[in-house]
Amino acid sequence: MSLGPQCCENAPTLSSSYGVGHEEEIGGLKSYVSGSLDSKLCVLLVSDIFGYKAPNLRKLADKVAAAGFYVVVPDFLHEDPYAPENAERPMLTWLKDHSPDEAFENAKPVIEDLKTKGVSKIGAAGFCWGAKVVVELAKHTYIHAAAILHPSFVSLEDINGVKVPISILGAETDQRSPPELLKRFEETLNAKPEVDCFVKIFPGVAHGWSLRYKDGDEHVVKCAKEAHQDMLDWFIKYLK
User: Fold this and answer.
1) Which of 197, 206, 41 is nearest to 120 (CA)?
2) Cβ distance 27 to 109 under 8 Å?
3) What is the distance in angstroms between the CA of the first residue and the CA of the last residue of the chain?
4) What's the predicted TM-score (pTM) here?
5) Assuming Cys at both sites, which of 2, 46, 182, 213 could form a disulfide with 170, CB separation 3.0 to 4.6 Å?
6) How far apart are CA 43 and CA 203, in angstroms?
């Protein structure tokens, strides 16, 4: 299990104070929370390797919350996001401590906690590393709808096991999930009429673009906003 160099590009400056929401513990994990529980509709956002303090991820959480959802961004990395500048702890070493399979197990008590708070429907979106976590949740029906953006570690076998509606948003340039693989995902899902799917490949962008865009790159920002809206529309369709 490994990640390519695209997964590490444009690393964010992390901030625990960013966003209009707040931090609290849910299911044993510190989480960024935005929106009201009154909606009883929750969206989990599962980060990439840079974790839940990434400003663009929190900005997206606030956007989804503004549409009427209770949004939770758990710290599945346990205050230990990947640090590209740390030469003594390369990616392979870091991944040994941060398996998506472990995060899947840690997501279960988060979901149980949300149910005790009155949440009736849950959707989940995962980015890069986090996409694998979301697909596992979708395979075991812990959630009602899924979205994955520029996924890593997701196999054709994984996709074949998905049991809830899933949106797959990919990049034209992606070493981890090239367009050819995403088209095979779509073919596999289309052969399962009981599972609705939406697959879209964004031209002129690279892996990681939906969270790690540069504000000055007009085309990439436009595509990121479009992907965010596609993701939100998917959750509105299947959770509301």
Assistant:
1) 41
2) yes
3) 36
4) 0.95
5) 182
6) 27
